[in-house]
């Protein structure tokens, strides 16, 4: 399969590989996919006090397109609010990397990963609010 | 005879996919050349020397092929390749004997061209038994014995598997078939020229051979069809009645000559080549094992051709690994490289879990593989597997002691 230069660049020089402390209150973690399907993405965001995503990290088990899609998404979400990050669409990812049709599911997975990370962050934040209210 | 040390150009990747195809041996090309040029006659022309010369070429080659498998030259017919040979053997006997027998036995790890032929026969009203294989890839002889009935016309079991290189117990299978009165067909595309084959000792009635898997040309193969006791086939291609009426059409003289020459070279060099390749394979496996934990060889390592390794690199997806090892040409059992998006059915049949099937590579070594190439391959594999594991969430979890099976994954 021939891939775009952008995709190959993200595969060869992936941005933001790594892990954040998943138990930290300001970190949201998304883990999507399944080993049996050949794709698993872990995507994490760290949200600052100003509500902006100040850091993002990923780890991906999957083909080159899956690695590139998750790498790209970590770049895109940094500096955005979580509401803005939530609007990232798989079609944008697929277009940017020029994914071939059989690899579109990789971009879908990357969108799912960012949504899952945001949902995890929100769940933690609302729990924090509840416990704060209970304490008051 | 000149020793050939390298067949590829220096700007080409290292070729480690010898089960997919092999380069034409320059000695084979040399033998073929006259038949492309001045010996261009039609081997079926009886009235002039051009025809006689061509006929001499194809008949010499037929004898060379026959000798490789312990057959008589009259029992070898030329085809376009192993796919056609498999089609002709299985459909041919099934069709010819259909009034008496209507059952076919094969295994789930056969090449697609055997499985698809069997599917076709099912549509024609035949019953097909697809035998499972054991974890090591070998057929269980008791299971086979129980499956063959007095209605079984043919048992088709490959000699060597194309993905995992395991060698089936041919002599034992042949014995069972003979006892039960069923014909034994074996797809020997991956076996011929690599391991000793003897149609007499192994009771093989039909055998498929491919030219381009044995350093011969593409577009030619052979089918061995036993004469005593005689195996009869319904032809698929009708015409001038060439090849004992089993396969009409003018023979491609240069290709036939190439197949014969390739067979003869394999026969002469088989023993030494097996020793050399076993050494290279062991070197590769040792090199990988020394630097990479959690790698697993799929299929039996003992009953295996020397030139094959099929390895699962746990927690690293096969296609992403292939993207990294740009200087190596290998193939993967991962879904992502196939049109079907399903991981290898052969590995699944061994009971290899889907997630492990996705991490597999098939590495094929052959006549032109050098020690230096093996060492380079080991270095590249170690580098990229390590790099990809560092970015694998599954590797991270396994290092943290999390059982990946304990997680509820959402299938997608």
Topology, element by element:
The complex is a heterodimer of chains A (136) and B (412).
Chain A: H1 5-12, E1 27-34, E2 39-47, E3 53-61, H2 64-77, H3 82-85, H4 90-97, H5 104-135
Antiparallel strand pairs in A: 1-2, 2-3
Chain B: E1 14-15, H1 26-36, H2 49-68, E2 76-79, H3 82-96, E3 103-107, H4 112-123, E4 127-131, H5 141-147, E5 152-156, H6 170-180, E6 183-187, E7 206-210, E8 221-225, H7 253-291, E9 295-297, E10 308-313, H8 318-324, E11 328-329, E12 331-332, H9 345-349, H10 354-357, E13 360-364, H11 371-390, H12 393-399
Parallel strand pairs in B: 1-11, 3-4, 3-5, 5-6, 6-7
Antiparallel strand pairs in B: 2-8, 7-8, 9-10, 10-13, 12-13
Short description:
Chain A is α+β, with helices and mostly antiparallel strands.
Q: Which labels suit this protein?
A:
heterodimer, A: three-stranded antiparallel beta sheet, 3 strands, B: 412 residues, Aspartate Aminotransferase, domain 1, Aspartate Aminotransferase, domain 2, seven-stranded mixed beta sheet, four-stranded antiparallel beta sheet, 12 helices
Biggest sheet details of chain B: 7 strands, mixed
Helix content of chain A: 40-55%
- Would you report the number of β strands of chain B? 13
- Compute the gyration radius of chain B: what is it? 22 Å
Biggest sheet of chain A, strands in spatial order? 1-2-3
The CA-CA distance between the termini of chain A, in Å, is 60 Å
Q: Percent of residues of chain B in helical segments?
A: 25-40%
Number of strands of chain A: 3
Principal-axis shape of chain A equals elongated
* CATH architectural arrangement of the largest domain in chain B: 3-Layer(aba) Sandwich
> If you average the pLDDT of chain B, what whole number results?
95
Poorly predicted ranges of chain A (pLDDT <50, ≥5 residues)? Answer: none
The CATH superfamily of the largest domain in chain B turns out to be: Type I PLP-dependent aspartate aminotransferase-like (Major domain)
Please give the radius of gyration of chain A in angstroms: 15 Å
Estimated structural class of chain B? alpha/beta
Can you tell me the residue ranges of chain B where pLDDT is under 50 for at least 5 consecutive residues?
none
Q: Looking at the structure, what is the overall shape of chain B?
A: globular
Which protein chains make the most extensive interface, counting residues with beta carbons within 8 Å of the other chain's beta carbons? A-B, 31 and 29 residues
Strand percentage of chain A? 15-25%
């Amino acid at each position: 399969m021939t891939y775009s230069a952008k995709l190959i660049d993200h595969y060869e020089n992936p941005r933001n590989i790594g892990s954040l402390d998943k138990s930290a209150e300001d970190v949201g973690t998304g883990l999507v996919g399944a080993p049996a399907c050949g794709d698993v993405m872990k995507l994490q965001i760290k949200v600052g006090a100003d509500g902006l995503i100040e850091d993002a990290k990923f780890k991906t088990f999957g083909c080159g397109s899956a690695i590139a899609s998750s790498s790209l998404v970590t770049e895109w979400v940094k500096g955005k609010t979580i509401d803005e990050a939530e609007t990232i669409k798989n079609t944008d990812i697929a277009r940017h990397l020029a994914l071939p049709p059989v690899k579109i599911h990789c971009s879908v997975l990357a969108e799912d990963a960012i949504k899952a990370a945001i949902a995890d962050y929100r769940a933690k934040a609302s729990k924090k609010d509840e416990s704060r209210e209970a304490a008051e | 005879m000149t020793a050939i040390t390298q067949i590829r150009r220096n700007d080409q990747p290292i070729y480690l996919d010898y089960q997919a195809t092999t380069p034409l041996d320059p000695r084979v090309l040399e033998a073929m050349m006259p038949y492309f040029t001045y010996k261009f006659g039609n081997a079926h022309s009886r009235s002039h020397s051009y025809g006689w010369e061509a006929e001499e070429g194809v008949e010499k080659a037929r004898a060379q092929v026959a000798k490789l498998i312990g057959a008589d030259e009259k029992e070898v017919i030329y085809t376009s390749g192993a796919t056609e040979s498999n089609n002709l053997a299985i459909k041919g006997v099934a069709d010819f004997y259909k009034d008496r027998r209507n059952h076919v036995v094969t295994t789930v790890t056969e090449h697609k061209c055997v499985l698809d032929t069997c599917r076709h026969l099912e549509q024609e009203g035949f019953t097909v038994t697809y035998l499972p294989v054991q974890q090591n890839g070998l057929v269980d002889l008791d299971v086979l014995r129980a499956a063959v009935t007095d209605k079984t016309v043919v048992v088709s079991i490959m000699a060597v598997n194309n993905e995992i290189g395991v060698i089936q117990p041919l002599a034992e299978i042949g014995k069972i078939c003979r006892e039960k009165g069923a014909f034994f067909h074996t797809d020997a595309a991956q076996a011929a020229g690599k391991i000793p084959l003897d149609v007499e000792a192994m009771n093989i009635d039909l055998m498929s051979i491919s030219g381009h898997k044995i350093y011969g040309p593409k577009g030619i193969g052979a089918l061995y069809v036993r004469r005593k006791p005689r195996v009869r086939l319904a032809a698929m291609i009708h015409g001038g009645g060439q090849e004992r009426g089993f396969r009409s059409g003018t023979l491609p003289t240069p290709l036939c000559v190439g197949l014969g020459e390739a067979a003869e070279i394999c026969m002469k060099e088989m023993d030494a080549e097996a020793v050399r390749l076993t050494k290279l394979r062991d070197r590769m496996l040792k090199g990988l094992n020394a630097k990479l934990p959690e790698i697993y060889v799929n299929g039996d390592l003992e009953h295996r051709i020397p030139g094959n390794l099929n390895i699962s690199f746990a927690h690293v997806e096969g296609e992403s690994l292939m993207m990294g090892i740009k200087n190596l040409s290998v193939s993967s059992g991962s879904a992502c490289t196939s049109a079907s998006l399903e991981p290898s059915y052969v590995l699944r049949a061994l009971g290899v879990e889907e997630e492990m099937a996705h991490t597999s590579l098939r590495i094929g070594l052959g006549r032109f593989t050098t020690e230096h190439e093996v060492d380079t391959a080991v270095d590249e594999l170690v580098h990229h597997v390590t790099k990809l594991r560092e970015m694998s969430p599954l590797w991270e979890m396994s290092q943290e002691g999390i059982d990946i099976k304990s997680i509820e994954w959402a299938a997608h």
